[in-house]
Amino acid sequence: FSLGLERTGGFETVAFCEIERRLWPNLERHFPGVPIYADIRELHGEPHAVDVVCGGFPCQPYSTASAGRAKGAEDDRALWPEMRRLVAEIRPEFVIGENVAGIDRLDLERVVSDLETLGFDLWPFEIPACAVGHDHGRPRIWFVGHANQNRKPGCAVDEEASGLRYSGPRLEGVGGPHGVSFWMGALGNAVVPQIPELIGRAILQARAAV
Question: Nearest 5°: phi and psi at 96?
Fold first, then answer.
């Protein structure tokens, strides 16, 4: 996420949440000074601390691979509720999420419903790695949410009062439950950076047109 979004020149990573501590040295090397939190279940956010919350919450509950049991929300590794809680606490302007294609039949409806309840207009779609020039399929479900005017009381986005640091096109962002990984052994957990870059450029273009 961070590698792709920062490639646009319009996003700055302000925090990671990554439970695999063996990946921390790589994050620290590529994003020096950016704090890393270990467990999303212990992470809490302040309203409007960042403009974008993004994350690829654990895919095992929705995966058909050997590590997954395809139990969806019943899987004890299903951490979407924690990401939802963090979004509710931070109240960002944008939410970007990613998961395996299996979430479409197991839990995507709940994700969409949860974010709509929090006051986001939401667009889920599938983008495979081959769509951005890679030589493998790797289908993934992506969703992008934008805060709308129908947010619950107390959740309205007021740029002047909220402290959104938007000057020019630059936005502050936070990595989600599984930040970008530069360790090749974790390739299976990583996202294709060109896709969040594509999404980031679309967000900046739309934001600049407002």
Answer: -125, 125
Per-residue H/E/C for 112-174: HHHHHHCCEEEEEEEEEHHHHCCCCCCEEEEEEEEECCCCCCCCCCCHHHHCCCCECCEEEEE
- CA-to-CA distance for 128 and 97, rounded, in angstroms? 14
Which of 128, 119, 129, 111 lies closest to 94, judged by CA? 119
Question: Residue 117 carries which side chain, given as an amino acid letter?
Answer: T
Which two structure tokens, joined as six digits, stand for 43?
């992470």
The rounded Cα 203 to chain-centroid distance in angstroms is 13
Separation CA 145–CA 123 (nearest Å): 6
Q: State the average pLDDT for the chain.
A: 74
207: which residues sit within 8 A by CB, 6+ positions away? 166, 169, 171
**Considering only 19-23, 30-34, 105-109, which range has the smallest mean pLDDT?**
105-109
